[in-house]
Amino acid sequence: MNVRESMRTHPWRWTAAILLVLIAVAAGSLALAVRALLQPQRFTALLQSQLADAGLVLSVDQPAAPAIWPHPAVQLEGFRLSRTGTAAPLLTAREARIVVRWRTLLRRELAIERLEIQSPRIDLDQLQALLAALPKSQGAPQLPHIGAGLKLSDGTLLRNGQPLLMDLDAETGELLQGQPFHLTVSARNGAEGTGSVVLDALPLPAGDGMRFDRLQMDARIDRGPHLRLAGNAFWRGGEDVSAVLQGALNLPAAAPSAGSSAAHAGAAAIPTPVARDYTLALRIEPARKDVPLNVAFTLDGAGEHVDARLPPLALVAWWNDVREWKPGTPLVLPQLEGSAQADEVGYGALHLRGVRIDAGPKVAPLADGGTKTPAASGPEANHGASH
User: Fold this and answer.
1) Smallest Cα–Cα separation from 230: which of 375, 377, 376, 371?
2) Distances in Å between the alpha carbon of 186 and those of 24, 118, 157, 171?
């Protein structure tokens, strides 16, 4: 049977074959056109420029290459981010992708939609150094202008070269003044399970600083505490941060230990663990001269009330000392001011009733529910101590 007879006998088969050939030619032509439009070097230069505004230097081991699946993108091999003027990398990854929108690509516009980084390793010490280098006093602080989203997958957060958080996933939108900002982060800690944080805010310039309006945060640990806060914040650079937030804290019922049941004859019954819900009013007080950044808060629950102030940076440093503590080394508790009272406190088989704790100077309760403006907040006057 010749070709002409075959076409008459099987017209649909030949039609399908021709369509497949045309689709293959069109796909090949599109791929060549996209590769020509991408011009990897120009998008790499644009990303380097945007990161430089944030005080970061981008370097790669291999020349960037174009990719068209699943989105038009520029592929980077041996991806590294470092602080300007330093050689130690803040972030390293085997590969990253600069994702580009189809419509801007076809218009031959330089516009990056998202930077995707696979299996990054992030140095927390370098990240803290970057944050510490942010402007502190001269003029109003400026947010870095980042006009592209960021997506991290299966990352690791390192401290002193050791893994601190694993399975780190993070996604954020553009960071621009006057534009809503969204951040989602989740990670796993080998000892405490998986946790996540969702943050939304509207950054706005305001006089000598930056306001963060419509600030909302939702933080939780799987089968653990769940914190929800909303309010506003103000930043004048460095540790000059103030905020007024309010919300709720939920502590789920702790699972009873294997030996906690009163199975023995004559044993006193141990109350069944229950979930606890609290209302929370929180105020961040900016650092002033010899006074560090502080957080004052009021926590209210059924039969429980706390008014306290503590320096969060000192608390972080103390926790790091606890993690690295060696026998024989003194361990000083961080400064804590305020009072707490509870109808009952229990841990395992131990239960105390009518508990009250006074630590250092009293902290005025946030009776207004945290409605003071951030700019007006400051350290409370000390009025003595009770023990």
Assistant:
1) 371
2) 41, 15, 12, 9
Give the integer Cα–Cα distance in Å for 21 and 126. 53
| pLDDT of 27 | 44
Q: What residues contact 79, with CB distance under 8 A and at least 6 apart?
A: 58, 60, 91, 92, 93, 94, 95, 96, 117, 120
List, as one string, the DSSP characters of 343-358: EEEEETTEEEEEEEEE
Q: Which amino acid is at 302?
A: A
81: nearest Cα among 28, 144, 33? 144
Distance, in Å, from the CA atom of 228 to the CA atom of 246, rounded to the nearest integer, reads 8
Q: How far apart are CA 101 and CA 250, in angstroms?
A: 41
Which two tokens mark 45? 């230069």
What is the spatial distance between Cα 73 and Cα 67, in angstroms, rounded to a whole number? 5
Checking if the pLDDT of 256 tops 50, the result is no
Two structure tokens written together for 357: 């704790």
Q: Is 32 helix (H, G, I), strand (E, B) or coil?
A: helix
> Hey, what are 248's tokens?
């709720």
pLDDT tens, position by position, 151-204: 999 999 998 888 888 999 999 988 888 889 999 999 998 766 789 999 999 999
Give which of 91, 65, 60 is closest to 78, Cα–Cα: 60
| DSSP secondary structure, 95-125, as one string | EEEEEE-HHHHHTT---EEEEEEES-EEEHH
Q: How far apart are the C-alpha atoms of 256 and 337, rounded to whole Å?
A: 32
Which has the closest alpha carbon to 50: 141, 176, 158, 228? 176
Max intra-chain CA distance, the chain: 107
Of 220, 360, 367, the residue nearest 297 (C-alpha): 367
Phi/psi at 50 (5° precision) = -65, -40
Higher-pLDDT residue of 70, 304: 304
Residue reference for tokens 């032509």: 29
Domain boundaries, the chain: 42-204, 239-253+275-387
User: Which residue, among 157, 189, 161, has the nearest Cα to 170 in the 3D structure?
Assistant: 157
Residue 134 backbone phi and psi in degrees, to 5: -65, 155
Q: What is the pTM of this model?
A: 0.71
pLDDT digits (tens, 9 = 90+) for 214-234: 999 999 988 888 999 999 999
What are 324's two structure tokens? Answer: 């690295």
